[in-house]
Amino acid sequence: xxxxxxxxxxxxxxxxxxxxxxxxxxxxxxxxxxxxxxxxxxxxxxxxxxxxxxxxxxxxxxxxxxxxxxxxxxxxxxxxxxxxxxxxxxxxxxxxxxxxxxx
Length: 103
Prior knowledge:
Layout: E1 13-23, H1 27-36, E2 40-46, E3 52-57, H2 67-70, H3 72-84, E4 87-97
Antiparallel strand pairs: 1-4, 2-3, 2-4
Helix pairs in contact: 1-3
């Protein structure tokens, strides 16, 4: 089939980035909330000066349900990081599906 290389749905997928500043003590809670969101594709945690501390690629709803147990080591690392920082910036990359066929 000639249409296998040209999937009409792939061009409809777009991403957008959001930056959130959080206090260190709220970091784990906020990461859990973001990771449970099915649209979140990647989370990057940076210091206020812009240095990248941690980048976490996520699957759809990675920490939803029983997968929280599997993510416990990652959450432990984020918790340890939160103990050493007062404020960090979270960069959230989200998928935004365009459901319109004509645009």
